[in-house]
Amino acid sequence: MSEAIVRKRRLAVRALRFALAIGAVCTASAPASAHVSDRGFVLLLPTGHYLAGGAVAVAASYAVLALLPREAIGAIAQVRLTLTRGEPRGRVATSLLSFAAFTVIVLAGWFGSRDPLSNPLPLVVWTLMWVGLTLVQGLIGNVWWWIDPWYGPWRLLRRLAGDLPGRPMLRLPSRVGYWPALALFFGFAWFELIDPAPDDPARLATVAAVYYSANLAAMLVFGHEEWSRRGECLSAFFSLISRYAVSGVEGEGAAARGVLRFPGAGVEAERPLPPSGALFLLLTLASVSFDGLSRTFFWLASNGVNPLEFPGRSAMMWTNTFGLLATFAVLAAAYLLAVAAGQVLTRSTVTLRRAGGLFVWSIVPIALAYHFSHYLTLLVVNGQYALVALSDPFAAGWNLIGTANMQVVTGIALGAEATWIVWNLQAGAIVGGHVLAVLAAHRIATRLHPESGKAALSELPLTALMVAYTVFGLWLLSTPTGA
Questions:
Q1: Range 161-184 burial, b when 16+ CB lie within 10 A, else e
Q2: How far is the C-alpha of 59 from the C-alpha of 441, rounded, in Å?
Q3: Beta-sheet strand order (sheet of 81-85)
Q4: Residue 125: its pLDDT value, please?
Q5: pTM of the predicted protein model
Q6: Helix (H) or strand (E) segment spanning residue 81
Q7: Residue 452: C-alpha distances to residues 74, 243, 357, 368 (Å)
Q8: Residue 222 has what pLDDT?
Q9: Hey, how many other C-beta atoms are within 10 angstroms of the C-beta on 214?
Q10: Cα–Cα distances in angstroms (integers) from residue 14 to residues 7, 11, 69, 127, in the given order
């Protein structure tokens, strides 16, 4: 073994130990008095010390990374544990099973119970898929690659048409970018957050069936790979965030291998996203942030609504549509200004398009952290309802998976001890996500600027934005909500 390899491994071990020590210090906190609101799952806590501590933790991580040798961090990012070799097989079969399950729950939406907590469709779409699967994709690995319900039917239809390779009928122009995915995701977010009845099973079933059919048609025209990467918003989102997972498939063909890696290491070699791709990722973060903001006393009172006399989603449709657009616009503008400021500070010759397309990868852990924190109690409680509903999808007295009679525990966040645990999980996720984002931004900065001083300076404005967003996220968790 060469001396250079030994030196790199030693640097990696030292850096890893140092990072773990810093993480332990940053996440340590004293117990806080707590109580829950009458909604049962939203925590209302005196969190001043958490706000300050979270901001300091994110800022400190920037300072630490600026001092660490880039070779040490790079050595950690390159560590891989090979699990499998060659391209995975069996995707068509798992996709067809997923399509069959999707068909059943859509039919259950039309013909099953009218209660959103008894019908499996709303619970699968809004809880298991949008909340649970997002976390699995970003933390564990690309499960969507296996259960994508479009892939198997697309392959079968192309075979029936005599086209075994599945060649696209038309080429999706590169200039189209991620605009179709962005437009579809805005519709997805609008339906979830603003539509008067996104949980109505029959209404959701119709929307899901139309959405599925339209995207299947687009895949038949433009090809599954291209449309799922830049057109269908869920596939695009799941694919992008899976780069941060601890497992993944790297390489192609016979050279492909399944690996274990450190969180975020999968983005090391990623190319800059086009402006539409950067905006797409920013929209996903903005939608979750606005979901939290739209429920706060602050937002409702600012729009002339008594938080204790919420008039219903129908009365807030135009207001919240504007709010969602405004949140997206403010976040996108703040991000672009932060990246541009870093370029100005360093007098960089790197284009704003390239810098913005690379630095946006550092937004992914923040989006995952907000997803976990904002939807944690919903996932735990509604996940139980989903298990019950899936066992009896048509409310016909079935018990398919043995959970139809399971007792659902809804008061999981009640009590001082449970509330303290949930709150610390949420707060820790937000701080941890922002720290990982700072690390990702630092790695990207060193790609753009080989000089360490210049790299640290270029990411300084973006770090300031992350500190501010950490405080905002912790405030969202702690402020009273009324809707």
A1: eeeeebebeeebeeeebbbbbbeb
A2: 13
A3: 81-85, 257-260, 247-250
A4: 96
A5: 0.85
A6: strand 81-85
A7: 13, 25, 21, 28
A8: 93
A9: 12
A10: 11, 5, 11, 40
